[in-house]
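Tokens for chain A. Residues wanted.
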């Protein structure tokens, strides 16, 4: 970072407070100046000394601490803080933030700050799913808060479900994106498809392709960081989705088609990065197909064309982006796809180029629109994602 910016870490009273120490350490290592405010309930889970050792600053707890230097601390902090992250954010503290209750140092300071605010909810699944908590989170989103997580898994109460605090490394990345990236997709709904589809032959076998989903997931993360409400329709991949993205898991091309088409009137932007199967078995065998001395012949039929459906039914202000992965005649085939699918842009790449294609962390893409083409050098998939979104933003204006 070109300048050392201050991040305020708020720690409320949940068992996940132990993760906050690692989050604090990672923020300091990344180059941020970190100030920490703990609620009194947080003292039941972790001591202020831990954060003081990590940050070099006194940890604040009580608004009216007589042993601290005289100043209106919540106001002085508000003047220098670049971003606030509350992790863990309990149901109680989320409710206070949502309704403007300022009854301790943390809630008072947050209310006084005019900067990006991030909350990482952590609580029991039933508490998280309670309509009151959901309403409070929706209110915070309306006020511009970024809600990171929660994730799903084993919880401290012994239950398993949604309510785990997002991992510290992911939160550090969200803070960086929040401070360093443009928010030019704020208020827009973006639907992204990612990964392969699987077309079942029998209970054991399926037809698929080599897509890893990395490009689609990079696009989801980039769109989220730029302020969009992101729906990620994902085929089977081994990638953890970014916190804050609405993930719709599918397997087959038909499932992906249904998931996308059922949401087509709610979206501003469609980015079809998935490698959807063009063909599916004409019939499914309820039993495993046994090996025999005869050659096996499979009858296939075309799957429904998701990009074509969305392209030809889009409204005047929707933007539709497709992908073309080719082994020859890249530009010619991509231009044909642009026209036949009625897309606004095709992202084309050649699988034979080193550093491009399936499973890599880099890509070499050409952005093709009705007004021309832009060839890009080898970039990381995260960088490619932002290049694609830069072009989409111009189209959306």
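Reply:
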């Amino acid at each position: 970072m070109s300048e050392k910016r201050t991040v305020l870490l708020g720690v409320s009273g949940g068992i996940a407070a132990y993760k906050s120490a690692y989050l604090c350490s990672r923020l300091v290592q990344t180059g941020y100046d970190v100030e920490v405010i703990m609620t009194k309930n947080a003292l039941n889970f972790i001591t202020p000394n831990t954060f003081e050792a990590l940050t070099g600053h006194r940890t604040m707890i009580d608004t009216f601490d007589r042993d601290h230097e005289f100043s209106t601390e919540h106001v002085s902090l508000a003047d220098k803080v670049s971003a606030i992250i509350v992790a863990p954010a309990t149901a109680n503290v989320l409710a206070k933030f949502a309704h403007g209750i300022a009854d301790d140092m943390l809630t008072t300071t947050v209310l006084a700050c005019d900067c990006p605010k991030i909350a990482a909810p952590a609580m029991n699944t039933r508490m998280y799913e309670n309509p009151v908590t959901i309403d409070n989170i929706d209110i915070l989103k309306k006020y511009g808060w970024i809600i990171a997580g929660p994730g799903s898994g084993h919880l401290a109460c012994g239950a398993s479900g949604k309510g785990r605090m997002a991992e510290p490394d992911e939160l550090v990345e969200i803070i960086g994106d929040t401070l360093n990236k443009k928010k030019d997709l704020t208020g827009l709904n973006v639907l992204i498809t990612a990964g392969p589809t699987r077309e079942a032959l029998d209970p054991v076998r399926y037809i698929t392709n080599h897509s890893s989903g990395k490009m689609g997931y990079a696009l989801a993360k980039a769109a989220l960081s730029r302020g969009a409400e992101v729906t990620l329709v994902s085929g089977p991949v081994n990638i953890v989705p970014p916190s804050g993205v609405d993930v719709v898991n599918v397997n087959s091309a038909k499932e992906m088609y249904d998931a996308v088409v059922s949401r087509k009137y709610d979206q501003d932007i469609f980015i079809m990065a998935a490698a959807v199967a063009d063909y599916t078995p004409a019939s499914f065998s309820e039993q495993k197909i046994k090996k025999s001395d005869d050659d096996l012949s499979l009858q296939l039929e075309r799957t429904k064309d998701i990009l074509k459906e969305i392209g030809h039914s889009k409204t005047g202000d929707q933007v539709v982006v497709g992908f073309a992965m080719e082994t020859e005649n890249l530009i010619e085939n991509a231009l044909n796809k642009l026209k036949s699918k009625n897309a606004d842009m095709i992202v084309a790449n050649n699988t034979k180029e080193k550093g491009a294609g399936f499973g890599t962390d880099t890509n070499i893409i050409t952005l093709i629109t009705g007004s021309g083409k832009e060839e890009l050098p080898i970039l990381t998939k995260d960088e490619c994602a932002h290049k694609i979104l830069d072009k989409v933003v111009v189209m959306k204006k």
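Residues 73 and 117 are 18 Å apart (CA to CA). The radius of gyration is 24 Å.
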